Amino acid sequence: MKHQLIITILGADRVGILSQIAAVVSETGCNILDSRQAIYGQDFSLTMILEGTQGAIIKAELKIPQICQQLDLLSMMKRTSEHSKQNLEHIVDVEFSGVDTPGVIQKVTALLAKHEVAVSAFRQKTSVDKQNQCDTMKCKLVASVPAQTSMDALREEFTALLGELGLTGNIVENH
């Protein structure tokens, strides 16, 4: 029987971290099913889901904190149930941008949740608009929309919300 483990690793970024972590995962006999890595400022962030036998997962639970301690990284792990692949039938890109104000992300994601849209990836970039001297942001979400959801209704509510917030954006279907 296959077991699964979610791991999040954080710390100062340096060349070779991913390679060292992947080597330890390989030594345990686990397989990396999915992963996301990002650099924030000078820091490294990695989240991955491993799969393996119970023995392999136990080895990962013991060895990964050791390598993280050697590399001065923080790690957190949690066993999880079977990882299921994302429904690829109704994948959309949700993009929006404008002046950055508190609560924008909450309002947009609440609208998506209302329509039972599952967000699988989220990226936000904030920058300073030198001409207007204000913070601006660009966001992109990748999401799975249930088949029974009306894309027209979702787009209409999304556009109305962006208008209220003074933002621009769109929802694009990826078939």
Top keywords for this entry?
175 residues, Alpha-Beta Plaits, 2 domains, 4-stranded antiparallel β-sheet, 4 helices, 31% helix
* DSSP strand tally: 8
- Which architecture of the largest domain does the CATH hierarchy give at level 2? 2-Layer Sandwich
User: Mean pLDDT, nearest integer?
Assistant: 91
CATH class bucket of the largest domain: Alpha Beta
What does the largest sheet look like? 4 strands, antiparallel
Give me the side-by-side strand order of the main sheet: 2-3-1-4
Structural class: alpha+beta
Identify the CATH homologous superfamily of the largest domain.
ACT domain
User: How many structural domains does the protein architecture include?
Assistant: 2
Organism: Fluctibacter halophilus
InterPro entries: ACT-like_dom_sf, ACT_dom, GcvR, UPF0237/GcvR_regulator
Protein name: Glycine cleavage system transcriptional repressor
Main location: cytoplasm
